[in-house]
Amino acid sequence: MLNRRTFLKTSAASLPLAAAIQTFNPATISADPIAGAAISGTDPKLIPLPARLAPVDPSTLPWQQNIRRVGQSNMTEHDPAVMNIEEWADYWHSAGADIVFISVTGILAFYPSKVQFHRHGKFLNGRDFFGECVAAARKRGMRVVARMSPDLNWGDALDAHPEWAMRDANGSVLLSPEDSRLFRTCMFTSYMDGYVPAIMREINSLYDVDCFYTNGWPPIGSLPNCHCAICSKLPPSNTTAYWRAFDDRILELWHKYDAIAKEKKPDSFYFANLGGNVRCGPNLDRLGRTAVWFQADNQGRTSDDPAVWGCSLQGRVCSAMMDGKFAANVSAAYSTGTVRWRNASKNPAEARMWLNETLASGMALYYHFIGSEAGFGEDRRWQKLGSDYFQWAKKHDAHLTPRRSLANIGVVMGQSTQLLYPTPVAAHAHDYMRETTQGIYATLLNGRFAFDFVHEDRLDLERISKYRALLLPNIAMLSDRQCQQIRDYVSSGGSIMASFETGLYDENLQRREEFALSDLLGISKAGDVIGTNGNAYYGRIERSHPILDGFSNTNWLPGAQNRVPVKSVPDPVLTVVPGFVQYPPELAYPPASHTDEPAVVLRDVGSSRLAYFPGDIERTFWLTGHGDLLRLLHNTIRWITQDEAVVHVDGDGFLELFAWETAPGYAIHLLNYTNPNAHHGWLSTVNPLGPQTVCMTLPSGVKVNAVDLLRSDRTTPFRLEGSVLRFTIPRVDDYEIAAVTVG
Ligand SMILES: [Zn+2]
Is residue 428 classed exposed, middle or buried when 0-12, 13-18 and 19+ CB atoms within 10 A define those classes? Predict the structure, then answer.
């Protein structure tokens, strides 16, 4: 991000004289506000950080809360024949792993299981491979996760239990798309009630494991669509009623498995595979109240979800639901993607950034590779990267373990909208809500705002009153209760930025005739969604306003791809110039160049400020990258927050910011995404950033002992004037953490 001040500063320092003179020409600057595409204006007003949390003795926490590094060599059927167990255990131990995953499975037994249909791997030969691995880990002081896979089984099980299979609408068994010898098991059947518990109890009777985990279930990012005898009696998939039945079943099984885990040891527990960030399958609010380990299966970038911040986005979701309980993100050292090589290392810069994002967003490190051919891997390049990273992080556990996020903006996640919203007919976009999420995320990163996610089922005032503003990027589904919580939040002084169809559906996906927040936002629906056929609509500037700062020399700004027409409001700031033909150019002019339909509705009520965009502006920014939309969103966020911030980081470059309170003090994490591959492909290089100046106001009476830069392993000078702390991070390679130790 270049703000105008830094732009002038850096230009003067680094450009040749003629270019610098050109830069200082006010006409040049005002004529080119699009290229800057960033925040303009003065520094934000720093709000003092909240009083520090009372100290907690880590030894009083559940054991998993003190896990910081997780290791997994995901075991294949062939591993009992080729894996060197001592080498495997030595690697994870010397890397500093606190816990390792060892495969029990459910598809193939890695021990001499007596459970019927728990087929022994063909290289097992009666050997207790699982037991040997558990012993090797235990000998080195590492804890053990017993890893199971309940999602698939073999033909003999299907012959005996045809009712265990998922079925399509024709009644045909759903098979593994990659190996048709395996059928897909249905989560509503006795397979999950009988077969899975039998394996868990067998493991508990034979071994000393710390907890149980199931891979491959529940599904990530979508809901199952099964037509077996049981599921045929459930509501249709992709309905709110089905989603509730799905959640009920997950929690029923989760509690059942958790109780079985605890039959042997009361501090044992069960957890399942999760992920999918805001589009997680199970309801995150309900699950967050149950789970004590969030397994974020968000292993790497793919070509259809290409933004570099995929891991930290997941971390923000975990923070929103876990309230400080344990979360780990599975970072694949292998080559993830639409085309993948599960047994080959990926670009080191990309693997490292995923680990960076894991730590920055508050999760525990988790490093993962598949298969141990030829001892401990045909491709061994991933090993040094992981052990170097783990060993570095181990030196700084106290600073890298967050206690509380420091953010003054809450972004409503809208999980039900993410899963169930039908999207506007005009858009025809499969990834509509993902694009919306990426649009608001990129906007906030570009502006270096400190923000958290907030789940729609967690809008109680106690939780959200810490935020100066709530953002609702097309949160289409909102219940009456959630809307009342938003009203209460505004009554208490909070601000809102909402867009497009926010509140036009209830929690059962029933469409409302009027916006549920029409009273609050001062809007009234005037028709159905209007899409784009040719030129998208424009916003005509009607008068000056802080949300228009930095725009000059134009009467029009871009609107968005789709909009809900709303009734006119007094004294509008932007009005809609409806879309029109873009080809042929002969017809590319507006039949109606002036209307009274608002393109934004702004309200100013006490200390609350409310902004509503009728267009899908966040998503349109993601689709186009248009700097005017970015500036408009930045200005609006600054206006509704009254330009308040909890931490200000000034400098060049595109980065993601996290600020945490920690036990020793505070940690400011900067992830450097200034990279040609930030939006596609994998990172292969690091483009270092220059100085970043950090400024924050500490609670009164808090003194600072030191500011240490953990990646570059140096200290940096600081100034504490009153309660205002200032320091400069001279350089950011791919990642830097400024660890503030307070006294
Ligand atoms: Zn079924």
Answer: exposed
Is the Cβ–Cβ distance between 361 and 327 less than 8 Å?
Answer: no
Cα-Cα-Cα-Cα dihedral sign, residues 451, 470, 542, 531: positive
Average pLDDT over residues 661-669: 98
Q: What is the DSSP letter of 63?
A: G
**What average pLDDT does the segment 186-215 reach?**
98
Give distance in angstroms: CA of 167 to centre of ligand 1. 7
How many other C-beta atoms lie within 10 A of the C-beta of residue 530? 19
In whole angstroms, what is the distance from residue 228 CA to residue 53 CA?
Answer: 51
Alpha helices (H) along 187-239: 190, 196-206
SS3 state of residue 331: strand
Paired tokens of 53: 């949390």
Measured in angstroms, how far is the CA atom of residue 234 from the centroid of ligand 1? 9
Residue 706: in which H helix or E strand, if any? strand 704-709
Considering only CA atoms, which of 271, 275, 351, 347 is closest in space to residue 313? 275
**Gap from CA of 327 to ligand 1 centroid (Å):** 30
Nearest Cα residue to 215 out of 319, 63, 370: 370
Hey, what amino acid is at 495?
S
User: What is the distance in A from the centroid of ligand 1 to the CA of 453?
Assistant: 33
Q: How far is CA 742 from CA 23, 525, 666, 707, 708, in A?
A: 42, 52, 8, 9, 11
CA distance 390 to 350: 16
Indicate the average pLDDT of the chain: 93
Q: Is the pTM of this model over 0.90?
A: yes
626, 634 contact by CB (below 8 A):
no
Distance from the CA of 154 to the center of ligand 1, in angstroms?
Answer: 17
Dist. CA 296 → ligand 1 center (Å): 25
